[in-house]
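Two proteins, back to back. First:
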Amino acid sequence: MARAMFEYTKVVLQKVSFNKDLFKKELEKAINRLLPYELKELYLWLKEFTSNKPNLQACLAIVKN
């Protein structure tokens, strides 16, 4: 089930990426739900996903901490 939560998190983040505040809120929820190794995967995915979205790149710091 943990893997399903990780995949669900990615889908949600993609859907709310139009709004930085929503994106940040969903990212904070994900940090509380995901396992430590999934957070590392999420960080790598976020680096790729936000590479062409400069307004969302600041959110990387949330996961890094």
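And the second protein:
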Amino acid sequence: MLCAVYKSIRKPQTYLFVAKRDDFSRVPTPLLEQFGPPKLVSVLNITDTTKMAMAKAPKVIAEVTLSGFYLQLPPPPVDYLKDHKQRKQQQLESDS
């Protein structure tokens, strides 16, 4: 599937995949308003076996086919305090 990929100038690491270049007719208006003016970064030919950095190719294809777009959000921030507390708890349990 050929997809045009746009990045958000307002939301870092946020990308919008659409089936046709500059065709945002199926993207909800509130989403486009928050996304900001889309900036084209690439046109990709995505297949089920395409390796993608943050998304699974079959999911992108399915969403673009079904909904007309796929929104890729940045990964959630790492909660270092939570990780630290879990490690401390594991150390306490292993010392007991």
